[in-house]
Amino acid sequence: MTPELVTFGETMVRLSPPRGGRLETSDTVRFSTAGAESNVAIAASRLGADAAWLSKLPDSALGRRVATDVRRHGVEPAVVWSDDHRQGTYYLEHGGEPRGTSVIYDRADAAVTTATPSELPTHLLEDVTYYYTSGITPALSDQLEATTRSLLDAARSAGATTAFDLNYRSKLWSPEAARETLEPLFPLVDVLVVAARDARTVLGRDGDAAAIAASLEAEFGFETVLVTRGDEGALARTDGETYEQGAFETETVDPIGTGDAFVGGYLASRIRGEPVPDALETGAATAALKRTLDGDLAVITPAEVERVCEQSGGSISR
């Protein structure tokens, strides 16, 4: 089956002590997997999209665990296997204030950092509807910077709509380095997703979310700009129109992966042919449901998303 959505990036193993515990004293950890691009594919798949995830994994127990986790949520793990590299991991401590939540990455020399276009199953891009990756991927290695550009170009040339989430991570690079690398990719991007704070910090934008979206649309000619605003919801700029969507009220169990859930919900809706305002609503509902779940994944159902959307009066255009 030809996928409707293809994503590309790293998926890591996540290790977390019990809530309130510390890695240095805990006797047990919860074992799960997570990565921005596979998170998006899984959220979209849970809402009915045929999705595949491109990556490179070590041929090890940990690498096979990642592939198994992706597959069990309905996403095809279209991976190349490596005998020479390792599986990236990250450690997460959930802590209340004033300690807060702490993240430690251990992803150096991960197999994905060596992935080249020639070894990946890029034939999947030939008939795909949407292709998605994020700014995390080119931050991981010089090779991935080149591969990110190549795959965006290939997907664009094949007629896919390309979606890119800036997804700035300060532990990976500086705002200046991120901007220098990411802005040259923008001519290959149809749909840009960016948090308002990252647009200001990395892209040097001023004003509110609507002003940010309008300036990015005008300068780079994006088909759609999605600006996320945390507790204030999200905003889309497309065809000269601006649409706003508030955040749904939710009881937060784990906020990690909320942005990926939003993007996955949005893309699933667009793949079904729904208009941007409806896709914004679906994305916001998917994000709200994700926050009720432990772990990075939006393990949700279409019925749950529909029920949350019924609470909304719809998006606002201006």
TrEMBL record:
Q: Name one GO molecular function term.
A: kinase activity
> Which residue ranges does the record assign to the Carbohydrate kinase PfkB domain?
4-293
Any Pfam family the entry gives: PfkB
Keywords of this protein's UniProt record, alphabetized? Kinase, Transferase
Keyword Kinase annotated: yes
Question: Could you say which EC number(s) this protein's record lists?
Answer: 2.7.1.178
Which SUPFAM superfamilies does the annotation name?
Ribokinase-like
Q: What class of enzyme is it?
A: transferase
Q: Does the keyword Transferase apply?
A: yes
Q: Which family does it belong to?
A: Belongs to the carbohydrate kinase PfkB family.
What is this protein's name? Bifunctional 2-dehydro-3-deoxygluconokinase/2-dehydro-3-deoxygalactonokinase
Which species does this protein come from?
Answer: Haloferax chudinovii
- Taxonomic classification, please? Archaea, Methanobacteriati, Methanobacteriota, Stenosarchaea group, Halobacteria
